[in-house]
Amino acid sequence: MKIKFLQAGNGDSFLISFNDGKQNRNILIDGGTSETYYSQNANTQGDLKTELDYLKDSGETIDLLILTHIDNDHICGLLKWFELDDKAYEMVKNVWFNSGKLIATYLNEPEIEDLRVGLKIFSDTKTGVHEAIDFEDYLIDKDIWNKKIIIQGQKIEECGIKIQILSPSEEQLIRLLKEYKDKTGDSAYTAGKGKDWHKNIKDFIEEENKSDFKFSQDRSVKNGSSISFIMTFKDKHFLFLGDSHPKGVIKQLKALGYNKDNPLEVNLMKVSHHGSKANTNKELLKIVKTENYFISTDSSGHNHPNKRTLARIINANPKAIFHFNYEHVRNDIFNPQDRQDFYIKARITKELDF
Questions:
Q1: In sequence order, what DSSP letters do the residues of 37-96 get, joined into one string?
Q2: Which of 27, 43, 245, 283 suits 218 as a labelling partner, its CA being 20 to 30 A distant?
Q3: What is the span of the domain harbouring residue 7?
Q4: Is 161 within a domain?
C-alpha cells in the first residue's frame, strides 16, 4: 500500500493506492483547498490534479472518495475538480459524504440551509456559462453516491480493506444540525490564533505535566462531525482522524476494547485538525501507539500546527517521527533548543510505502 500526502494548503488530501490481488485500487480522502486541484490566479495545477491526471492516463479510477466533512480546506479541491472537469464523475466509483440533507433525513430533522454545498459546472462549454447545483444532487445524478450515512461503530469492507468508523456519533450529527446555524463559518471555533512556535518543547511539557493543567477541546460542530476511522489492509493499520474531536474518538476506541494497557497499534496516525492543540490530548496519545505522525498543513489561515501538540506527542512518545508536507513548517516549528533537548525526527514526506 502506498499513501501519498498531497500538498493541500492548510487542508487535507490523501491518495491511498494498493492492489487487492486482482487490480489496482485507489482511495482519495478529502481534496484540500481549491488550489490543491488548480489555482486560477497563478494558472498552476496542484498535487490533486497531477495525481488524478496520472490515474486517468493509467486507466485507473477512484474506487472510494471519502469527504470527511464540509470545511473548505477539505472539500474545495474536490469541488474545483468537478467544476472544471465535466467527466470527473466517470473516475469515481463510490462516495462517502454525510451531507446536510442526508444527516437531516437520517435524524428525521429539518434540513439546515447553511449546510448545503454548492457546485458550479459548465452547462454549455462553448459559452462558458455555469450552472449552479447542489453537490449532492450532482452525485445522485451521476450515480456515484448511495446516500448511506457514515457513523460511529460501523465496520465496512471496501476493495479488500476494512474500515472501522470512529466518528461521527449520532450525538455529534445532532449537534451539527441544531447548533451550526448559530455558528456559520465557525471561524471563532476553529482558529489556531497566533503561532506558538517561539516557545520551547520542554516548556510545554513541564507546563502540561502539572496537575492543574486542563485540556480544552475544539468546539467546532463541523470538525466534530468528521468521518474518522481505522483502515486495515492485510496486517497494516492506519488511523485517519480528519478534524475529529479526541473525546469522541477515545470513547469509541474504548468501546472497541482499546486502552492505555491495550493500545491500538497503527502504522500511521494522521493527526487531527492539522495538529491543533484542541484536537489531540494526552489520553488519545496513550491509547494509540505508533511511530509515524502525519501533520497536513502549510500553516496558513489558522497557524497550525500548534507546537503544544507536538510537545504532547514527544512527551508520550520520544521516538515519534513527524511527517510534514511543507518544508517551511518542518524547518521552522522546531528551534535549536528543542533539538538540543530532544532527539527530534521530522521529515518532509510525499509518500510512504507499507
A1: TEETTTTEE-HHHHHHHHHHHTT--BSEEEE----HHHHHHHHHHHHH-TTGGGGB--EE
A2: 27
A3: 2-150
A4: no
